[in-house]
Amino acid sequence: METELKLTLAAKDIPALKAHPVLAAAGDPHEIEQLDVYYDTPEHELWQRGYALRVRCARGKYVQTFKGGGASVGGMHVRDEWESALADGKPDPAALARQAEGHQTASALLAPGVAGKLLPVFTNTTTRTLWNLQPAPGCEVECVLDVATIRCGKRHTAMVEVELELKRGEPGQLIVLAQELNNAVALRIENASKAERGYVLAGVRQPPAPVKARPIALRAKATLDDALQRILQNCLEHMEANVAGVLAQDIEYLHQMRVGLRRLRAALHLFKSKVQLPADLQQDVDWLAALLGKARNWDVFITDTLDKVGGASWNASRSALRVAAAQHAAAAHKAVQRALHSRRYTGLILGLAGWISGRQWRQPADGVLPGKLDSRVHKGMRPLLAKTQRRLHKRIRRVDSTDAASLHRVRIAAKQSRYAAEFFQPFLKQRPLKKQLNRLATLQEMLGNLNDAAIADTLLAQLGRDHGAPAEAIAFARGYLAATAEQKMRSIGKPLRQIK
């Protein structure tokens, strides 16, 4: 099993990284030129099952490696790995199969007959600089700086990557070390392996579509402590899986990244009587939420809300508002881009990953003692779920259906209640749960539309302050949305009464 933390950096920052005191104290590094050739069958059977076969030539010696399985979150990659020396550059699956004996998937992929089908898919040429570090007693880490070029036919892509591979000790030490490096050099979390990049370049692996929340797997005997860790890991995975799409400026990836962050905040709120996120991490979570929320608000306004204003005769005015709003949306997205490339964001993800993987909520945070989380999930979840339901019912009882702020508070409570139920879904009766989730989704949609209208009014007022703004179109849109919202408020009673 291989455990490593992957980060990337800009080529211009290589000298600063090499000069970092942590690396300088390790003595002169080793530098190696290496060539990797990745093999697969014509049908790409290895990659289809999540595995990669690599033959590496370095200093005249050949080594084959078979990797796969596992997962990555917050840049931490944990995968199965087998390797063996070769006499030449020709892969020998049988030798790897002997090592992987007992591992069902690997043994099947390396079965007799595979060798004759293997073909090169892509190559990776790398200049590797290597330091052996001992960041803490009993801990050994191999720090690798790779300046690499992946090639497939005439296509190629360059990358600069730092890998921190755990040789001995606790995985949390990798995060501590990465944070120390990130404090001096702008690093970025990397959840994609070189194999993933190569298969994308080869056209075998398409860039993933926006990633939605995945079901949370919990063992029957899991404790609340286990559940909290798995829930938070799931939310962090959801966020990080969409970062590449956000950096490519696709608004649907941004939406899903924001949903992942919202789920994480809802999970922390659900456990707030027992767990408190350290104040510095909480501040950074709120900072990121504000940036993503601002960009998302403009996206919804441009792509959805404006379509609901007026009819076909209003197309010219609608287009004028879209043009005006696009400038604000571009600025909001640029702010998100800067944030995702910043040391602050990398520090946030590393901090969350370390806090979650090390279950650091067991320690006092900012003077607050942790609550007990040692009860089994099926018992401990009930008071948590009941509390979210009581909060929702209380807000429904007190709601003023003519007040957007009052309805928004109900919407937030409904969302928290739905997320809480989804977190513990494996332990709940499925038929009544499905009915309740459907009711909550219906309510959320109606309240979401009202909230979009309220946000649109704020954004339209902001557009009105711009030089040369289409004042008449802004006034019409604000009046139209206000009248529509008033009408929808009158029909909100039934979905509110259906929540049990």
TrEMBL record:
CDD domains reported in the protein's UniProt record: CYTH-like_Pase_CHAD
Coiled-coil intervals: none
Superkingdom to which the source organism belongs: Bacteria
Record-linked Gene3D superfamilies: CHAD domain, Hypothetical Protein Pfu-838710-001
SUPFAM superfamilies, alphabetized: CYTH-like phosphatases
PROSITE patterns in the cross-refs: CHAD, CYTH
Domain CYTH: 1-205
InterPro entries: CHAD_dom, CHAD_dom_sf, CYTH-like_dom_sf, CYTH_domain, YgiF
Chain ranges passing through the membrane: none
Record domain CHAD: where: 221-500
One Pfam family this sequence matches: CYTH
Protein name: CHAD domain-containing protein
Natural source organism: Pseudoduganella ginsengisoli
